[in-house]
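RECORD TYPE: protein structure
NAME: Alpha/beta-hydrolase
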Amino acid sequence: MARAFAEEDAIPNDWRTRQPGLTIWLLVSVIRVPLLAFFYSIYYILPSFRQSSTWTYRQAFTTRLTKIAMTVIREVGFTQSLSLDAGKLGDRWVVMSPASADCYGGAFASDTIKPEAIGATWYPDPPLKASPQLVKNDDEEDDDKSLVVLSFHGSAFLWLTGQPDDSGFTADLLNTKLGAGARSLWVQYRLAGGNNPTPYPGPMQDTITAYLYLVQDLGISPSRIVLAGDSSGSTMAMALLRHLASFQDKAGHVLAELPPPRACLLFSPSVEYSYEGDSQAVNTDRNQSTDYCDGQMAAWGARAFAPPETVRLDDPYLSPSLHPFATPVPIFTQVGGAEILCDSVRRFVDAMRAVPGNRIEYLEVPDVPHDIYMMGHMLGWPEEQTKMMEAAAEFVRRV
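PREDICTED:
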């Protein structure tokens, strides 16, 4: 049965999240984590002791360390705060202002959460020609036909920024695979934690702000725009597609007049929060032993992002696997065969494929955990990371 809300106690709030408990637990972890690392450095020497017999020593060890680190983060309730300062990014950093209010209607409207200015990082650099203009029709001359990726990072709506420290490797690799001239804009959308916690629909509003920044402010044709998202970022990419589709029968509205984006790329997508918000279901998943994510972490993100007074976990915008819809945008979907989201992603693909007119391509990479799109070079699956991006790029070239 689909869960409507994450557990009430899903958000960390015990003695370890407050001082002096926080400091005490961090000191304990300084001792505990190296001891665990030492233990597993020996334990995984024998292949039969690893999470999967197909994994290398490095893959088993780094995946376990990642799981341990994420456990500590959850125990102390750490979330990330954001800033709109450019820092060392210079003109690669942009601040985008909200579009007109009528673009945020429907499911993205809220009496308490309003669109705000957000930041984003260009990879490798901003377009050379960026001047406001009406979007061109596909049959008009365009001096620049290169692809522009609008990317939404993952992290359960609790961490990361899309800036080089956390997303630079993946952004550069994806640009390279998409071909000469490809650029990507990684959005620093509002998070459900930190110094300005912004749950649903705030991050969804940010997808519209970023999309219309490309189309209206920079004059980039939607036919050149590729949406991309990993993990919770995929939730946002799918929400944007559904939101755009909801305006197609509203003649004269700016969103109705736009042609659709060229394609949408989903990597290890979070597309069934009615499952992810259920810690017991996640912890008993067949792939729990081979993934670095656990039920408590998934439920925390779900509860913070989708508080009960705001939205249900089985809402169409959070669980599109339960509410498939028609979209003219071709969708590439990748998932790891060893991750806890594998079965929910399969359900999503089957449901979306059943809608007449939808074009969905599915790639399941055997024996890899969650979000190798972002983590492959760190966890020991660089070849798989590269190959899945090559497959995604080939898909974009075909559509």
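COMMENT: Residues 87-398 form a domain with the Rossmann fold fold (CATH 3.40.50.1820).
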